[in-house]
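Subject: Sanity check before I submit

Could someone independently write out the structure tokens for this chain? I want to compare against mine line by line before I put it in a report. The sequence has 174 residues.
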Amino acid sequence: MTQATDKMTVGVVVERRDLDNKWVDHAWRAVAVIPGAPPVSEWRQTIAGDGWTQYHAATLDIEIFAKETDGYRANLQGHMPVVYVVLRPNEGTESPHEVDVFHVTVCAHEASVYAEMPDTIVEGVPMPPEIVAWVSDFFNKHHVEVPFVKRKRLPYDPRKGGQRRDGPPGSGNE
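---
Independent answer below. Compare away.
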């Protein structure tokens, strides 16, 4: 049995903004995604202002899977659906920029896993309407509600060993 999947190509726009800080002089963050953007081999400056510059930094695929629809629902039901962009330091590469676009996802659960990794920046950027429609359609076609099943405790079996839990309340063995 094969799992239902789909993918959409998006361009990722990254911004370098100057900071008024004695320890850090600038910061990088993802600011937008562009559905259907053409591939780029190098970062392309798209727009600049006083103290900030935006680049089309990468073109990647957002992949969605039928088994992750719960994470898509969490994202779509939020205040504002987002595309999560994962940035990592580009240690050891010849890129003139300090960060690389590593991954894009619309799954809130997957984004939270990346957010726990050290030296990784996870930014949620507004999800364009065509991506909202695409993810919603995929969710409606493939989501299967899994009912919550409360686990039942098994009675103590002295043959299996372990600690018996039948002491008085407050003893730690209740």
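---
OP: Matches mine. For the report I'm noting this point. The chain is about 15% helix and 35% strand.
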